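#struct-pred

JT: dropping the chains for the assembly here, can someone run the whole complex?
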Amino acid sequence: MKLGSRRVYSGRIITVDIDEVRFPDGSVGELEMVRHPGASAVVPFVSDASSDDPQILLIKQYRHAANDFIYEIPAGKLDGGEDPKVCAERELREETGCTAERIEHLYTFYTTPGFTDERIHAFMATGLKHGESAREHDEFMSLETVTLSHALELIQRGELKDAKSALAILFVAGFRLGK
Amino acid sequence: MKLGSRRVYSGRIITVDIDEVRFPDGSVGELEMVRHPGASAVVPFVSDASSDDPQILLIKQYRHAANDFIYEIPAGKLDGGEDPKVCAERELREETGCTAERIEHLYTFYTTPGFTDERIHAFMATGLKHGESAREHDEFMSLETVTLSHALELIQRGELKDAKSALAILFVAGFRLGK
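RK: done, full complex below.
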């Protein structure tokens, strides 16, 4: 239970608080906590998700944290209390230029609860349509269409290194599509 | 590419830097980056991993970020450049009281690369032996032995909410054990 909090950093996306916390045994201590508004992520199916080996869209984007281009699924933070499903639709449109007939919730998880309250809401998108503003690529980001089996291979080989993306893909493959 | 950096917060586990970054198109901007030493996590098999539905150990621990007790696998941060496998062995021993005959690397991933450089190295541990110091539970943490199929159900139902744990369990179930 939080007894108090002092803000030690307030930034563009995150803030850092030192929380005074009462632990389950009644003791009191301080914990540093990176506060994040939360985010949505979406596995976009460009072919019938129920087919043998459906195709999905991956983004390859430059991430300073990795000092490299890494594979991810479309994702982004919730804007000011935004509904996670609306956020997933918006990020899908902004990052791929696509709209979806259906966006279904898969799974919501804490990214790394040892030091941040960030939760990511993972969705799957089906019935994709390219809009006029389809963003094919720029200097930071390119789109790749891959089969689900290839995406799973990228995870198995450790080449798809982003946790939210790997988790959402494994979740949909195992629990929705039975692959 | 990092051009410069200024530290805005230096804490117990994390530090926060504002990095000046040259992006792939040559433009320059600032990014906030939570620096973390990295961590290891381990899926501990308490019965033969090759059996039909092997048993694993889960930890249920209080996390202030979730304001609740949540399911996780044993994990913890790398101590001063520690080898990830050594860290996995140490955290397994400290959190469960067990040693393992074999610790095998599964997968290394970025937890949430939009704002932190934290990477987690996931392992599986087999041939577990209880040590004398076996920690059964305390006020913050309890151990539960569950079947792998039950752990997968907890993920599917959204009750196991920790990304590293869900990802490591899905990875080992799908790619090592073919379940």
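JT: nice. Residues 2-34 of chain B form one domain. Chain B has a mean pLDDT of 94.
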